[in-house]
TrEMBL record:
The lineage of its organism: Eukaryota, Viridiplantae, Streptophyta, Embryophyta, Tracheophyta. The keyword Nucleotide-binding does not apply. Residues 2-70 form the Isopenicillin N synthase-like Fe(2+) 2OG dioxygenase domain. Coiled coil: none annotated. Keywords: Iron, Metal-binding, Vitamin C. GO terms for molecular function: L-ascorbic acid binding; metal ion binding. The keyword rRNA processing does not apply. InterPro entries: IPNS-like_FE2OG_OXY, IPNS-like_sf, Plant_2OG-oxidoreductases. This is Naringenin,2-oxoglutarate 3-dioxygenase. It comes from Cajanus cajan (Pigeon pea).
Length: 75
């Protein structure tokens, strides 16, 4: 997830950009937001939706050659 710069970066935790290893990832977002997905060469903010579950396709979906879908790259 993307967050604005922290005034005390030694105290921060987070993930670098990545794709997930499973088949799908289910995310229940809070109202803070911060999730971004890679669309082409641009990071796009994912707006949180109340009472929604976000489904991201992961690496095992891409390995299945019977599907045209690619794994989601996020941060």
């Amino acid at each position: 997830s993307y967050y604005p710069p922290c005034p005390e970066p030694d105290l921060t935790l987070g993930l670098q950009s990545h794709s997930d290893m499973g088949a799908i990832t289910l995310l229940i977002q809070d109202d803070v937001g911060g999730l971004q997905v890679l669309k082409g060469d641009t990071w796009v903010n994912v707006q949180p939706l109340q009472d929604a579950v976000l489904v991201l396709l992961a690496d095992q979906t891409e390995v299945n050659k019977c599907t045209p879908f690619l794994s989601t790259f996020s941060q």
